[in-house]
Each structure stands twice: as C-alpha cells, then as structure tokens.
TrEMBL record:
PROSITE patterns: HTH_LYSR
PANTHER family reported in the protein's UniProt record: HTH-TYPE TRANSCRIPTIONAL REGULATOR (PTHR30126), TRANSCRIPTIONAL REGULATOR-RELATED (PTHR30126:SF21)
Signal sequence interval, chain numbering: none
Family named by the database record: Belongs to the LysR transcriptional regulatory family.
An example molecular function term from Gene Ontology annotations: DNA-binding transcription factor activity
The protein, known as: LysR family transcriptional regulator
Keywords carried by this UniProt record: DNA-binding, Transcription, Transcription regulation
Coiled coil location: none
Domain HTH lysR-type, chain residue ranges per copy: 1-58
Keyword DNA-binding: yes
Taxonomic classification: Bacteria, Pseudomonadati, Pseudomonadota, Gammaproteobacteria, Alteromonadales
Length: 280
C-alpha cells in the first residue's frame, strides 16, 4: 500500500471535502477521487458514505484513521532513521502533551540544540494515552506527561516541579474576591485540589487545556487563572498580571517516560540531564 494513498485519505477524512483536500495537497479533484477509490479497492471496504451532499466517514473509515496515522508516523521515522544513519548523527523523537511544551520544553529543546550538536530533533504532540502507546511501540523515544504510567519496561523520570500561582488582571484583589476564573488542565491530582478550594465560590467560568491559551485569554478579556510562574513572569513584570493575595499555591510535577531497553537510552539520559532538576 502506498503512503500517498493514506496521506490523501487522511486529508479527505479531515476536510470531508474533495475540492478542499485537492487544494491542500496541490492535486486535482480527479486524482483525489482516484486515490480514494484505489485505497477502497485494496482494502475491500467503503471508506466514505457518498449518499449525502457532504462526505461522511463510514465505520471502516473511522477505524482506518488511527491506523493510517500510525503507519505514516512509522514511515516518517523510518526515513528519518535511514537519513540520520547516513550522516553519522542521532535522531531524538520527542512527544508531549501540548500544555507542557510552553511550560518547560521550549527552553529544553534550545539546550539540546546548543549542547548536543549531532542530534536531530523531531517533535510530536499527543494525548497522554497516545503518548504511552507511541513510546511502547517505539514510534517516539521520549514523552512528557503530568501523570506517568506505572508500566513494566517503561522508565519514569521526574524532570521538573512547576509552581502554579493564581494571577489576575485586577490589582490588589484577594482570594474571596476572584471571578471569571479560567480552569487550566494540569491533570487530575492538581485540578481536584483547585476544584475543592474554589467549588463554593462560583468563580470558575471557563475551562482551557493550555496555560498559554488561558493567559492570553485573561489578558484580553480580564479574569484570573492558575498559571506556571515560568510563563507569567513577563506579564507580571510589565504590570499586566498580579498575584492574588492569600490564594493557595499548588505545584505540578512533570515526568519523562521512555523504554527501559531503548537503544537510545544513553542519548535520552544525556538529554534529560539538561533539565536543572536532574542535576540536583
């Protein structure tokens, strides 16, 4: 099966429109339709319901989406591994929850770039469950999560403890005066504490899964949120955000996970050593 058939299928499944998919892939509509038909013939199933005005994935099409993504990722990794081998360099495939990127990983990637000259970085964003699957299947070398799995053959390493503080766009307010609070997704252990402490105040109005999105939202609309000190330092310095007096502080641990018997274990350990927490 050709990878370009799967790539075309995924684009059509995402847009549910042949013309839009054709524009995005710089192909003709006829080429898109031909590829989908060829893929359906190879698999012996119908992937799209064409009886309605708008395309709709069939049950078989929904099942193929997951496998197609995995196959394309595996193909990309294969090409990268072969190319890296030819250049006598190393590849490090890193996956993370999207919220962790802005908290600690951007700086870490810069440190890898500056200190590990022969490393080629490849980054991916997945859900916590998908990250575990990708590590186990060796599609990514190292993943970052708030709550690591306790699974045989997977190593868990705490790489950071992130302080979370309640900040507001209004200066001088106290904990019992907050409103328009944005609840940010930090994992069950932390979010349950926040909900317990603020459940009776009716302050929580919105829920967002990324600290950076929550920060930008309250800077524009006003309000408050628990944010990592790392990302709200600059707005606080400029007088755009202020600490809420008397509000409890929380912290969120971040973990790296990787296979115990990974062929890249030494490289992974060298990369993790660049976190200040690992050198304590």
């Amino acid at each position: 099966m050709k990878i370009d058939l799967l790539t075309t299928f995924l684009e059509v499944s995402r847009t549910l429109h042949v013309r839009v998919a054709a524009d995005n892939l710089y192909l003709t509509q006829a080429a898109i339709s031909s590829r989908i038909k060829l893929l359906e013939e190879e698999l012996g199933v119908q992937l799209f319901d064409r009886t309605q005005k708008r395309l709709k994935l069939t049950a078989e099409g929904h099942r193929l989406v997951k496998h197609a993504n995995e196959m394309i990722l595996m193909w990309q990794k294969l090409k990268q591994d072969v190319g890296v081998a030819q250049s006598n360099s190393s590849q490090l495939s890193v996956g993370s929850m999207i919220s962790i990127w802005d908290i600690i990983l951007q700086d870490w990637l810069q440190k890898i770039h500056r200190n590990l000259d022969d490393v080629h970085l490849f980054t991916h964003t997945f859900s916590p469950l998908e990250l575990r699957k990708q590590v186990i299947s060796r599609l990514i070398d190292i993943a970052f999560l708030f709550e690591p799995p306790f699974v045989e053959d997977i190593v868990n390493e705490k790489v950071a403890t992130v302080p979370l503080q309640l900040v507001s766009t209004e200066k001088g307010i106290k904990q019992d005066e907050v409103d328009n609070m944005v609840m940010v997704e930090y994992g069950e252990s932390v979010n349950s504490q926040i909900l317990r402490d603020y459940s009776e105040t009716n302050a929580i109005r919105h829920h967002m899964n990324q600290p950076k999105i929550a920060m930008n939202f309250i800077l524009e609309a006003g309000g408050c949120a628990y944010l990592p000190k790392q990302i709200c330092f600059e707005p606080m310095r400029k007088g755009k955000l202020y600490r809420v007096e008397g509000a409890p502080e929380y912290s969120r641990d971040i973990y790296a996970i990787y296979l115990d018997k990974s062929s890249k274990r030494q490289l992974i350990e060298d990369a993790l050593f660049l976190f200040p927490y690992m050198r304590k």
